[in-house]
Amino acid sequence: MNQSIINTEIKPFSATAFHKGEFVPVTEQDLLGKWSVVFFYPADFTFVCPTELGDMADHYEKLQAMGVEVYSVSTDTHFTHKAWHDASDTINKIQYPMIGDPTGVISRNFGVMIEEDGLALRGTFVINPEGQIKVSEVHDLGIGRSAAELVRKIQAAQYVATHDGEVCPAAWQPGAETLAPSLDLVGKI
């Protein structure tokens, strides 16, 4: 049985990312001080992966406006990320860092490494500015994710972080009512 990593701090790592035409170093320190999404996928030059990364690229401007940085991660190298970026119109529109994790250290840190295949599961992690994991979602390889739903989850996480004593109910959207847990609500919802 896996232990939940919710509310744990991200573990140290050091990697190279392809970002805006350059190779750049990225460590866990880069994720501190802002909201971050670490978005694992199995491999470059595949089928479901480009649909997810393209969907994330389509929502990236909104995420940036929310103060969120996105980091995609696969066990490919940063060189492979560049080649994919150059070869695919979908991947070419990505503006967020694409981290290479060929040793699997980052994938293992987040518990998404498929050891026998050397690939990562589809894992999405939302990290608060203090470096704590607030959302963890892991999918099987054949199940693609929705960036729009991720945006909603981040909005809820950000709301809860700034509104002590309030929680967001299912399908909550910004501007909708929240709940303040109390004995008065028990059995009434």
From TrEMBL:
Catalysed transformations (reactions): a hydroperoxide + NADH + H(+) = an alcohol + NAD(+) + H2O
Record keywords, A-Z: Antioxidant, Cytoplasm, Disulfide bond, Oxidoreductase, Peroxidase, Redox-active center
Signal peptide location: none
Assembly and oligomerization: Homodimer; disulfide-linked, upon oxidation. 5 homodimers assemble to form a ring-like decamer.
Active site positions, chain numbering: C49 (cysteine sulfenic acid (-soh) intermediate)
Protein name per UniProt: Alkyl hydroperoxide reductase C
EC numbers: 1.11.1.26
Lineage: Bacteria, Pseudomonadati, Pseudomonadota, Gammaproteobacteria, Alteromonadales
Lipid metabolism in keyword set: no
Primary localization class, coarse: cytoplasm
Domain of life: Bacteria
